[in-house]
Design brief:
This protein is of the alpha+beta class. It has one domain. About 30% of the residues lie in helices and about 10% in strands. The protein contains one helix and two strands; from the N terminus they run ββα. Strands 1-2 form a two-stranded antiparallel ribbon. A hairpin with a 5-residue loop joins strand 1 and strand 2.
Length: about 80
């Protein structure tokens, strides 16, 4: 539940403020000149499984380096 906001009118009354869309891309547009939405044609989406696999692999590699460092007595 959200609080409804009001703004003053020219005759001294109050009117409900317009509700903004929840899409963050709408905030990237210029409201003043009604410009087109900003797009990034160079952006490529990454498969979530590849991203999770990369992070898991990086964590496993870090763990292996730490264990190997303690095994050879480098950090001991």
């Amino acid at each position: 539940m959200t609080m409804k906001l009001y703004r003053p009118t020219t005759d001294g009354g109050l009117e409900p403020a317009p509700v903004e869309a929840k899409d963050y891309r709408r905030r990237l547009r210029s409201r003043r000149w009604k410009a087109a939405e900003l797009a990034n044609p160079e952006a490529q989406t990454t498969n979530p499984w590849i991203a999770v696999g990369f992070i898991a692999g990086l964590a496993a590699l870090t763990f292996a380096v730490i264990v190997a460092g303690y095994a050879i007595g480098h950090w001991g």
